[in-house]
Request: fold
Amino acid sequence: MDLRHITAFVAAYEEGSINRAAQRLNLAQPSVSGILRDLEAEIGGPLFERLARGSRPTIAGDTFYKHCLRVLAEVDAARKAVTNGADRVAGPVHIGLAPTVAKGLMPRFIAGYLADYPDVQLRVAEAFSGPLAEWTLSGEVDFAVVAVPPVDRRLVIRRLAPDPIFLISAAGGLAATTTGPLSAMAPLKLVMPSPRNGLRIMLDRYIHAVGLPIDRLIEVDSLHGTLEVVKRSDWVTLLSITSILRELDRGELAARRTDPPVDLEFYLIHPARRALSAAAALFVERLEQAFCVSQAEWAHLVAGETVGATIR
Reply:
């Protein structure tokens, strides 16, 4: 057994078809079929159940796939270590970030990261969880930070941090003047992202569970656009606190904790068959540090320790 067998098996497993696996590997279909037959002969049993259209992994195939991903990740890590040198942090890093992370966290550490690692070529894309997961699987980004991770065995998914959801209004608006359960408030004029955004799915569940009264609802698929609407009107929104700490500190917005409370969880996702490079791993490390700092800052805001913020 060698990497040729493992690569062909993983392609066939993920594509669900030997023909599509051959296209992915740029090989002839009979060649891939032969590689898989040799592999099954060595293992001593079938890894796939051949169907009229495509194939389906057996229980042995499911088990073998998990081990293959670990092998490919180790090989990828070894390749990156040799290519870049054991102690050198360099090379391209392509990252996908949820809007809250791109706005509220990345600016805290990006200048220091780039100064410390001048040989890193960084590219950052901002998007909702759905596109970020697709880009991660396709290899367009090395990893992504998402609010709603997909259920996909091809991905490594690691929880990073919770971020509490707050009701956000203009500086003198509802968030500054109301207390108690959200369900007891007068019907709200609410700005929300569309269902394409994973945050919306989570918020819809919360709104239904607590019985949040809504007068009117508009959908804005832009964090900046949402905040501008809220700043200049009596409309409100529900957002994680990290995305608005600067505006709170400048007194541009008011925020109150949801009652009952709810958190948005952020997750790191990356392909299971590819290891993070040293440069990517160090970016994640700085990001986790930024999450910790952000959590301390909003805790101070809640305690009333920061002048200029309106938060309840």
Summary: The chain has three domains: 3-84, 91-160+265-298, 162-263+300-311.
